[in-house]
Amino acid sequence: MVSKQRRRLLASIGAGTSLPLVTGATTARSDDDGTAASGNETDGETGPPFDEQVAAVLERLTVEEKVSLLHQYQPPIDRAGLDAFRTGTEALHGVAWLGEATVFPQAIGLGSTWDPDLVRRIGDAVGDEVRAMHNATDGGVGLNVWSPTVDPLRDPRWGRNEEGYAEDPLVTNEIATAYTDGLTGDHPDYLKTAPILKHYIGYNNETERTTTNAEMPPRLLRDYYLPFFRDPIESGTAVGVMASYNVVNGRPMTASPLLSDPIREWAPDPNAIMNVSDAWAPLNLTGAQEYFDSDAEARAAAVLAGLDSFTEFDADNSTTTDALLGALEEGHLEEDDIDRAAGHVLTVRSLLGTFLDPSEDPYAHLTEEVLGHEDHRELAREAARKGTVLLKNDADGALPLSEDDTVAVVGPLSDRVFEDWYSGTMPYRITLREGMRDRFGPDQLRTDVGADRIALREQSSGDYVSASVGKGGGGLSLQRNDAPSVQLFERIQWTDDHWTLRSTANNRYVTVDGDELVNSSEGPGGWEVVDEAFEFVDVGGSVVLHHPSSGNYVTVEDGILQAAAEEQSDAARFGIEVRTDGIEAAIEAARDADAAVVAVGTHPLMGGRETQDRDRLALPHSQRELVERVSDAQSDTAVVLQSSYPVHLEGVENRVPSMLWTSHAGQETGRALTDVLVGDVSPGGCLTQTWPRSADRLPDITEYNVAETGMTYRYGQDDPLYAFGHGLTYTSFEYGDLQVSPSAPLQAGETATISVSVTNTGSRAADEVVQCYTSQRQSRTDQPEKELRGFERVHLEPGEHTTVEFEIEYDEFSFWDVTRQQRVVERATHSVLVGSASDDIRVQGSIRVDGEKIPPRDLSETTRAVDADDWSWDEIELLDRSRYEGTVVGMTDGSWVAFHDVDLRDKPTEATVSVANGGDSAVTVELRRDSPSGAVLGRAEAPPTGGVYEYEEYTLSLEQATGNNRELYVVVRGGDARVNTIRLE
């Protein structure tokens, strides 16, 4: 996807200068976090030099000036020809937070297209709009974009689920690399924008996100989590990563050596990598994480780990620069360390054209005219169409709709299109109701939101709550008049607890300004907790209103409604009068039509979002009831489900013949959905995330060992509602003639070719996403149940057939071997599985791979405990060996780690175990055979070592340590300890 010219440029930057690149973690690469070197180990050797122009600028700068480049807001340095520069323009699915710009479907919706070419075109359009804003503001809009988010969607309860593409690294890599390729443009020498990948690494929970320890054993880290980030970096279309808020294996990611290796190891030019911190994350190092004692030590550790830019204190860079200058004075950093980080920043800036004369700027022609351009509008419509997934369509289903029919379009998402936290401002928005009206005409359409319109009557006075009719709204107050125009509020339930109230007086939402309730909001929004959300608490025949954002209850002061009561007992009591029954109105509309479309779903800012995970996945009760009762009244009912994450339908899927899913799909939502509903296009999107039947079936959200918990399709997620890759069409496809070559065992350096014939056997043209999986049949270790190896979205007319071909390189069958800390391809047979979903395999074959047999474990070499084959997972914790590098196993009383297939034929007589005991009393370390309670081969006492980072070696005298293919268990008794290594002698 990346131009050959770009690859050559990035590989050749730096010919001819003297400033070397030496990453801070190179001397410890083979022992950091299970990421033993898989490429060249530098051991302190110099890497590629900086570009001459960058080096020349660095030589002219003072230390203070170089340090100033390591903050999000970089001041101008006129004498060096440097303008001000700012990192961090948000561009997840369009330019965000900077005014009107094209809003494409959410990232999860883009992933659901399974169409990298489409996503590349979207990235190109977004890159144009970023450049246009940059040019229009004389550089005020930055060209370093913090996008895309490539975190794996391993758990749908994650509050930021909509920001990712998939639970699978291959889909994520293909889509993310396409997007970054579009963002960077096709100029051979200069980048249109400079994308940063979010959030590196192990970040999938919002609750306690700064202190969560994401535990990743070495193999899972290498084979699952790291690959999500690899391709965009390796292709040169991403210029770095954003360090995530969380902790990985005991060490904050803001100061993790993983920022250097493997990121700079993957990059065509390691100097062209500029890693940034997440917003305010550096403060956590001495704050919530309590990891370092001083700002100077913390910032120094981040720089040495590979961080180049600090995002903190907004435009005020003084805390960052003071800490870094202090680190230099105290000896935590050398000036060369500052030079390296500043050189990375300047290299990226040079690729963006910082040193170009304005007349030579290849992107100067991009003006505000491209913002919301007609081509971008059509592209947004295409993306929303292609990302729509047909979850269900019975043989006599409601879809596609006939344009001769009268159709009822009802539901809370039928007449509105929402922006999410990282959306731009839509220049317009087409609702489903509007899209259907434009297609069917008003005479053939029956509509209703399906939400109650209520009046609130304060119980002690008998007066009604009234709202202002002005466009800007006003304070809600009690009035004695009975005018429905100011008394009615449309009440919609978005979670089991949270509702919104939209005043019919001016169609604005009720929010809280200070303490006062006002009908002034255009829609739910705001940081962390939504001010427009209210809870209705039953207090025996009446209700009190709770405002979750403030934590207060609504009371009445001098006739004005205020969220000011801290205790429920002090709240005003209201009676609810239902003036219009929303469900009954929707039923009436459906009965008066030939078919019904019920639009339900979630609000992207309620029930889970950044800073807030969700506990449940279910649709709220009132929306489920709406679907059930409308479908009872109208047999030809199709549900349009719009959400940012998999939804627990609680049997709704069994009540209706047809069901579509879409993300919050941007400004063209209504037209795109109409195109699909009437059959202008057949839905061809597929799910990129397993849909569980309920949240009750999921493990703790902070449990990152997906192999242990069986999460995602790879690791056999149990009995899903909808499987990874699921997506139906309005036609049928037949698969056949599977061909796998070579027929002889695949050798190193060779490529396997898998081809399959696909035929459209139905009566409609449609797209099919052909998916190829493999499954290793036998192995020394546990393997994923299946792995996606390739996919292709094909378009076929009725009766048309095509041959789809996939290629799998020999090395793609490799996995991380913990016994030798290297990648290995095993000698094995792999099943080849091709179909239309991970649970809908149409044709099967096999391929033999001529790899190696992993030899028995040789524990005569010092072996890390973290490289064990198994462990008592609930009783151990993966932790940091020191603040700067390495991973150890934190063990508690009775916990164990196991090493399989150990060769004891040399009859070792001693075992040496490296242990840190930070407690006050001794612990016992045992070596047992065959099970944690098996025969004791040896034991030793480990007294307190003086700290959790203070390691001592203890010798265990062994008896009866003989045989081959043994299982050895290291067991800790009597307290807590960190076990680093074991060695048999």
Automatic annotation (TrEMBL):
<dbReference type="GO" id="GO:0008422">
    <property type="term" value="F:beta-glucosidase activity"/>
</dbReference>
<dbReference type="InterPro" id="IPR036881">
    <property type="entry name" value="Glyco_hydro_3_C_sf"/>
</dbReference>
<dbReference type="GO" id="GO:0009044">
    <property type="term" value="F:xylan 1,4-beta-xylosidase activity"/>
</dbReference>
<dbReference type="GO" id="GO:0031222">
    <property type="term" value="P:arabinan catabolic process"/>
</dbReference>
<keyword id="KW-0732">Signal</keyword>
<dbReference type="Pfam" id="PF14310">
    <property type="entry name" value="Fn3-like"/>
</dbReference>
<dbReference type="InterPro" id="IPR013783">
    <property type="entry name" value="Ig-like_fold"/>
</dbReference>
<keyword id="KW-0326">Glycosidase</keyword>
<dbReference type="Pfam" id="PF00933">
    <property type="entry name" value="Glyco_hydro_3"/>
</dbReference>
<feature type="domain" description="CBM6">
    <location>
        <begin position="864"/>
        <end position="985"/>
    </location>
</feature>
<dbReference type="GO" id="GO:0046556">
    <property type="term" value="F:alpha-L-arabinofuranosidase activity"/>
</dbReference>
<dbReference type="InterPro" id="IPR017853">
    <property type="entry name" value="GH"/>
</dbReference>
<dbReference type="InterPro" id="IPR036962">
    <property type="entry name" value="Glyco_hydro_3_N_sf"/>
</dbReference>
<dbReference type="GO" id="GO:0030246">
    <property type="term" value="F:carbohydrate binding"/>
</dbReference>
<dbReference type="InterPro" id="IPR026891">
    <property type="entry name" value="Fn3-like"/>
</dbReference>
<keyword id="KW-0614">Plasmid</keyword>
<feature type="region of interest" description="Disordered">
    <location>
        <begin position="23"/>
        <end position="50"/>
    </location>
</feature>
<dbReference type="GO" id="GO:0045493">
    <property type="term" value="P:xylan catabolic process"/>
</dbReference>
<dbReference type="Pfam" id="PF03422">
    <property type="entry name" value="CBM_6"/>
</dbReference>
<dbReference type="InterPro" id="IPR008979">
    <property type="entry name" value="Galactose-bd-like_sf"/>
</dbReference>
<dbReference type="InterPro" id="IPR044993">
    <property type="entry name" value="BXL"/>
</dbReference>
<keyword id="KW-0378">Hydrolase</keyword>
<dbReference type="InterPro" id="IPR002772">
    <property type="entry name" value="Glyco_hydro_3_C"/>
</dbReference>
<dbReference type="Pfam" id="PF01915">
    <property type="entry name" value="Glyco_hydro_3_C"/>
</dbReference>
<dbReference type="InterPro" id="IPR005084">
    <property type="entry name" value="CBM6"/>
</dbReference>
<dbReference type="InterPro" id="IPR001764">
    <property type="entry name" value="Glyco_hydro_3_N"/>
</dbReference>
<comment type="similarity">
    <text>Belongs to the glycosyl hydrolase 3 family.</text>
</comment>
<dbReference type="InterPro" id="IPR008999">
    <property type="entry name" value="Actin-crosslinking"/>
</dbReference>
<dbReference type="InterPro" id="IPR006584">
    <property type="entry name" value="Cellulose-bd_IV"/>
</dbReference>
<protein>
    <submittedName>
        <fullName>Beta-glucosidase</fullName>
        <ecNumber>3.2.1.21</ecNumber>
    </submittedName>
</protein>
